[in-house]
Design a protein that fits this description.
single chain; alpha/beta; six-stranded parallel sheet; 18 helices; 16% strand
Length: 451
């Protein structure tokens, strides 16, 4: 029987329970499996924390360049590459594309078009306003070069390629460098390579982890540095993105994938079970069920238990549910909304009769899915919004990746002498208050001069 955490808001200390749950969903960067600890000892000769591992790798890549990247590929991923084979060749991309199933490539094109349509609709536009004797503008220019992380440890993720590359292309980014680990699910995966070719991406590198992030951030022989790094990855990718932030921009520091599912009597238990399992099979993935009817919650848990043995990744999903999952019995719909806002989940699925009304009462969520026929997989794979979303409670202040994240805005100001005169008194007054006399003089000098 599934041993998932049960929380009753009328019986348990809900404040403490929510704090414990939030702590589990917020990775500290210092938790690693026994196998991971052993691998660290093998690579570095002693046990290091994940932060120490990342700092060491990034420093080595910055100082030694490509040789350090190749060395860590060999020591961590057990793959020996050289300066030529680290980049996927044009012939390899073409061969993967030629061998791909036509229906797969057709699906990639349809999803690309869905994403592009949505991203174009929300793209920032230049703004110009007229002022007396002048004008002001805000213009948006695409970043020149972007790095995209695509995971490839336990599964292949062409969906992550689509959800990062297409928004960048819509924004007008001219150079996109993709990194994926040198594994059968990463940069050796034919479906991933075929999708790269279909999207027009020809710069793909066989590198992952902290060494890949560092190579993109600092630039090494044969790999030019990027302006921004986006995309999901494991703990070491997340910590490496945090480490190089400031050298380059990043999208976010992502933790485990997570979902909150709100249910009522209209929700089918079998639907709910798969909604919870879809996140749990990420392993780690956090699945939280909230409702105000105990019988509905019990039926959903029973359906989960029955479904676990039918899944390829059922054992991993069970582990995730028991370690990161929870079933919360709320007093009513109001409390369910309040608790969801406290969690601020990456994904929120409201599978109730009044889903749209409940969504209007919840502020904090990365993406919201409404109704019994809109599972999270719709957003993960095909609809249009990017599935790169804020995790670990950061939906309180962060948003999902969009084409606008690949734009850089700057302001443009243009004034004549008459326009400057219109603002001169206020400028000089504030400059005097701040004691910045050269600022004041830069205006007064112009006002005293002949036209």
């Amino acid at each position: 029987m599934l041993n998932i955490r049960r929380i009753d808001s009328q019986r348990d200390d809900i404040g403490r329970a929510m704090a414990d749950l939030r702590a589990k969903l917020s990775p500290r960067g210092d938790v690693v499996s026994p196998a991971g600890r052993q691998r660290t000892i093998e690579v570095f000769g002693r046990e290091l924390t994940p932060q120490e591992v990342v700092a060491r790798i990034c420093a080595d890549v910055r100082e030694q360049g490509l040789p350090a990247v190749l060395d860590y590929n060999r020591r961590i991923d057990k793959v020996t590459l050289d300066s030529k084979s680290i980049r996927v060749s044009a012939d390899e991309l073409a061969a993967a594309h030629a061998a791909a199933r036509p229906e797969y490539l057709a699906a990639v094109r349809r999803i690309r078009d869905n994403i592009a349509e949505f991203q174009r609709a929300l793209l920032q536009r230049d703004v110009r306003i007229e002022r007396p004797g002048g004008w002001l503008a805000q213009r948006y220019l695409p970043l020149r070069r972007v790095g995209v992380c695509v995971p490839g440890g336990a599964a292949a993720y062409p969906s992550s390629l689509l959800m990062t590359v297409v928004p960048a292309q819509v924004a007008g980014v001219s150079e996109i460098a993709v990194m994926a680990p040198p594994t059968r699910f990463g940069a050796y995966n034919p479906e991933l390579l075929a999708a790269c070719r279909e999207l027009g991406v020809d710069e793909v590198y066989r590198m992952g982890g902290a060494q890949g992030v560092a190579a993109l951030a600092y630039g090494v022989e044969g790999i030019a540095r990027v302006d921004k790094i986006v995309g999901p990855g494991n703990l070491f990718v997340a910590l490496a993105k945090r480490h190089v932030f400031g050298e380059v921009a990043i999208d976010s520091i992502a933790g485990p994938s997570e979902v909150v599912v709100i249910v009522d009597q209209t929700t089918k238990p079998e639907f709910t079970a798969m909604d919870l399992l879809a996140q749990a099979e990420h392993a780690p993935g956090a699945s939280i069920l909230i409702g105000w009817d105990k019988q509905v919650l019990d039926a959903a848990v029973e359906a989960v238990d029955r479904a676990l043995d039918t899944l390829d990744r059922g054992a991993l999903a069970r582990q995730s549910l028991e370690e990161f999952g929870a079933v919360i019995l709320a007093r009513d719909a109001d409390e369910a909304c309040r608790l969801t806002d406290q969690i601020a989940p990456e994904h929120l699925h409201i599978a109730t009769a009044d889903a749209e009304q409940l969504a209007a009462r919840i502020r904090h969520a990365g993406a919201i899915f409404l109704g019994n026929y809109c599972p999270v997989a719709v957003g993960d794979y095909a609809a249009g919004p990017s599935h790169v979303l804020p995790t670990s409670g950061t939906a309180r202040f962060a948003a999902g990746l969009t084409a606008n994240d690949f734009l850089r805005g700057n302001s443009v100001l243009c004034f004549s002498r008459e326009g400057l005169a219109h603002l001169a008194d206020d400028i000089c007054l504030l400059a005097s208050v701040e004691g910045l006399t050269a600022h004041r003089a830069s205006v007064e000098t112009r006002m005293r001069s002949d036209q």
